[in-house]
Amino acid sequence: MAILGKMLRSPGEFLPPGYEFTEERNVAGCLLGLGMALSLHFFVSLREAVEELYYMDRIRGRIPKPGVTAVPFLELVWGYAGLFLPLYLFLAGMMVYHYLYYYRETKSIYLMRRLPLRGVLWKSCVQIPLLGMGAGAVAMLMLFLLYYGSYLLLVPAEAIPGF
Question: Rounded distance, CA 42 to CA 35, Å?
Answer without folding.
Answer: 12
